[in-house]
Amino acid sequence: xxxxxxxxxxxxxxxxxxxxxxxxxxxxxxxxxxxxxxxxxxxxxxxxxxxxxxxxxxxxxxxxxxxxxxxxxxxxxxxxxxxxxxxxxxxxxxxxxxxxxxxxxx
Length: 106
Known about the structure:
Blueprint: H1 13-17, H2 28-34, H3 38-55, H4 73-92
């Protein structure tokens, strides 16, 4: 393990933050999403990565809602609404019929 992301030789990180050109790495798309100014984009990208390093790695599954839904508040509400509608449709449907887009396994 390395102390700093730019010390990892097999990473493209240096291409993003030090403007080191490598034939296999294209940084324009990602850095363009960060800033229109190339130098500012590299600095902002470095700050973003270093913030993540400082905070340490977190397991994203710690944030699962109900043990099964991963996402923001609005996504969770939408997913729960969909699940409720599917459950309601199954209750209303005679046994053996398809519910919505769910195909029968028979």
